[in-house]
Amino acid sequence: MSSDHRPDPELLNQQAVDLLNRATQLGDAAVLGTCISLFQGIVAMTPPHHPHRATRLYNLAESHRARYALTGRQDDADQSIGIGHQAVAALHDGDPNSALVLSNLSVTHLLRFQRAGHPNDLDGVIQFGERAIVATGAAQNIAVYLSNLAAGYLLRFEETGHLADLARAIDHGERATAATDAHAPHRTTTLTNLGAAYWARFGRAGHPADLDRAIAIGEQAAADTGHPNRATVLSNLAAGYHDRFERTGSLADLDRAIAHQEHAVAAAPDDAPEGATYLSNLGMAYRARFDRLGAVADLDRAIDHLGRAVAATPHGHRQFATFRSNLGVAHSDRFDRLGHVADLDRAVAHHEQAVAATPAGHPDLALRLCNLGTAYDARFDRNGNPVDVHRAVETLERAVIVMPADHPSRATVLSNLAAALRGRFDGLGDVADLDRAVAHHEQAVAATPGDHPDLAHRLSNLSLARWSRFTRAGETSDLDAAIDAGRRAVAATPDDHPNRALYLSNLGTSLQQRFEHIGSLHDLDRAIGHKERAVAATPPDHPSRATYLSNLAVAYQTRARRSGAETDFDRAVDLGLLALAATPANHPDRVLRLYNLTRAHQTRYEHSGDPADLDRSVDLAQETAAAVPFDHPDRARYLFNVGNAYRSRFQRTGAASDLDRAVDAAERAVAATPDDHPNRATRIYLLGVCYRRRWNTDGALDRSRIARLAEGALAATTSPPFDRLRACWAAARLAYVLDELHTARLLFDTAVKLLPLVAARETSSADHEHRLGANRGLVGETIAVHCALDDPGGAVQAGELGRAVLLAARLDLRTPLADLDAAHPALAHRLRRVRAALNAPDPPAMATPGGQDVDHVDRRTWLWAEHDAVLAEIRRLPGLDRFLLPPTWNELRPTTTGGAVVLLNAGLQRCDGIVVTADGPPLLVPLPELRLADVEGWATELTEATHDAGSYTGELRRQRVLTELLGRLWDKAVEPVLDAVERRLRPDDGVLPRVWWIPTGPLGLLPLHAAGHPGRPGALDRVISSYTPTLRALARARERPAATALRRLTVALDRTPGLPDLPATAAEAASLHAAHPDMPLLTNEQATAARVTGALPEASWAHFACHAGTDPDAPSEGGLHLHDGVLSVAEIGRRNLHEAELAYLSACSSGHVGRRHADESIHLASAFQLAGFRHVVASLWPLDDHVAAGAADHFYRLMPDTPSAEDAPFALHRVIQRLRTKHIGRPHLWASLIHSGP
């Protein structure tokens, strides 16, 4: 054939190019095959050094690439890249197509990587892309080449995590965007690539500005509604909005993310390679909305979309691990919401596959490890298998190691690792795990911005860890930190957030714990409120509902023990039953629910005495202990529960077998409790009680066991003060009955020294009174053991330390600061300011700028911290090292000058009097005829008789009871003591010595000053009597200077709403005011609390003719009945009156103290003394109106018309003597009046 008929390669090449363009537009694989054949022939006709060989190889490579893009045939990709490399090799210097050939080879490498995930392809993308840029110069296609290269750098960053690649991706993307005309067809792709790079940098560095930039760029790209890759554009934009929601919590952003992702899925062809990515992204957006709003339908949609993504992605695909991990997270969420174990197992399986498919250096490995570790931890929580919790910790520790220190998700990994460590501590008991958990939680919170949506969750986790460490180590700082973090978590959580219930319940648990530690009822009430809201916010089918119900039941049970309210007892049992019914039989928390229900039944039995509750508690306790493995870290708790239940039943039935079981369980509980555990003292206390029951039953006690018990009680220093006190007290009683008196004294003294700590300074007066009232009898027993050892000095010091604890604390806040003012006025000002705040009533609850409540306990905690800091600064100054410390014995001794102080004690073991004078050691006066049981009975009889008003039989009863009582007091207590007083003081003939009585316990309810037999000399004929709570209180009263001016305030109410009229008392008061009109008379409607408290600072003498009331359970709530209500003991005690001299309380029971708080001396008389009045006249029980009026009139006629009231005790003595003469045989009409003061 001649050369004229050979085919023209150029013409064939042009025809083939036209056919390739048409085939690409039509997406026709068959035509693309024809193109490949044509280009193969053309290349074959082209000599090796032909100037167009590179271009013709390029065309062949492009044909293979186009068919690969259409069909996914891997051999086409390989052929395209191989031929592309030949084309590059065939390029000659100055070839005008160099940039095109290089760029398209780069793109082919990119396409193969996206499809097959070969890491080496990324290097090819970048290598040939960079050469294409160099070869392009200022050509018009440089924007396309820059954009493609940016995409390559971004993908390599995603594979390797190298930040330099990400920086180049953004740089090239910005240059590509700047070089692209606004209407260029490739502008949308360029914008999409740049937005993806900014989004990736946000994911790595966490800068919000990068995310905002990514979204803004994405919105520009989405404006091109006709772009062939619109699905990718919308999916990228949706991812940006999703991430911004995760960062800010904006629901509007999340809704936009879902909408854009839905459109992306709809816009993508069924066979689109990126279709699985769009489905997975949509699923994660729905999952995020479930996390925020809690709608299960969103979660179901999420799992459906994520499952479809996984189904469409073969193993080995570059997104295989991502989609598996996402699906695993959604299944974990559904387990958390619905409690189906199958979901949890699926989650673990998906996460395990995701981690296995992730290379060692992959930047997402840490997050996938985190997801897997968290799933293991959740499965441990459900099944209790320690293998899972060990896997959880190990996997999460790997995640922390491989994650860069500055990664924005590091806080998530740290928080999850901390949660796993705390779970392992709960299951296995290693304290080191708990310390690490707290440290990691602190790091996670510190690394979380204040406006981050995950902050609340991390704070709540931190709160739980701190609470756990408090329950194990007993450090109050952990408990306060737990409450603070819990409050911040709740404050940072919207009301409609599904996790709000969790945070509320956790906060309630911490507040309840603080109540149990320091006794603040305010904390407990708030705990119940939070837990009620948690239950109300939780759907009936939620797996956490059982936990919240159980937590609420425990809170009601705790309040029932404090309040005694029947509704609280019943609510605790009912909620406990609901919680148990909602807990699967194989759930590891079931044993805890059984334990809580046991306690609820036993607590209700102790209140109601219903034996059905008692038997139920024993059965449940046995079931609980049987379900706990021998090596469980909380086994001691459940053994304690068994011992307590059997102890209660023994007390009811007397069955020796029940006592044996109680002792056995209590011994095993103590043995299983670490020495430094804060619950050790409680368990020692139970064992001590059980031993005491055994002693009372058969007199059997093992001295070696009691010795160990005593050592344990003294060593339990990590337990709360209240629990330590009870443990020492129980051990002390046992040591006493074994005649181990020195050991008993040590234990009793330790218990008494704890009394001031039991009444935590941060709590309210009512809380103080409740806590101290629970220890009735301790001081008396302590004094008794000192007396048994012939140690009256130690007995007096024990009485000083253990009695009037609250009064001593309040007196400390009134100590004059004149010397400090002169030497260090700034420190004096600071101390005075904080003391005034501490003395003031609690203000309404405050809130911090962050929104969390600041309650009274927090406020007082801060104030006391400031107080202690100032005090410590003062005591560091020369000569002030003992500033405001309790007075020493030598400092107190002069207090008794001019008479004697008589400490009269009725202890469980023995009764004694102790005479204290200024010129000799304390004198012990044993009182073998006096018995505590008798004193208790006399106090009961006296209280009942003196409050049985209005009937003739009541009058006869009072006469009989008082007459018999005064005779018995004289014979068994007062006469022997006064004999000793006279021997010590040796008074001159005709001169009656002064005696200040300090009666302990129920003796404080009895009229010691009036003891004697009718018609025979008694106490009124031997001494001038006064009363004082302690030597220290007497010393303080003596230190105060007398008033310098006489200004009398008279308050009189002859009628009080709801109470009997007092015509005689009020008339006498009006007469008194007429004789001394120093200040306006406050009577009836004018006698309001505000007017009275407003007038008191101006008065030196104050006379009250009105009713008064007492509250035996909360004595500080008693007070004077004024026209508009009660002026309480607490409110009176807050006054700090500088000219106060004499208060005459012609009011009912103004000196009466409830038996439960007898050693605290909380009554109107002590309140007026605390307010500043040096002398107070009061009554132990209600007086007849006419008798009271006459007594007051006589008293004032005996008093000199001077500001000083030094004659008050003598005048009152003469008044009582006169009344005794007038009403002989009717001691209830005169024995009630008492004097307190110097």
Automatic annotation (TrEMBL):
Record-linked InterPro entries: CHAT_dom, TPR-like_helical_dom_sf, TPR_rpt
Signal peptide, first to last residue: none
SMART domains found in the cross-reference section: TPR (SM00028)
Sequence ranges assigned to domain CHAT in this UniProt record: 964-1237
Protein name as annotated: CHAT domain-containing protein
Pfam families attached to this UniProt entry: CHAT (PF12770), TPR_10 (PF13374)
Gene3D superfamilies xrefs: IL-4 antagonist (De novo design) like domain, Tetratricopeptide repeat domain
Organism of origin: Streptomyces ferrugineus
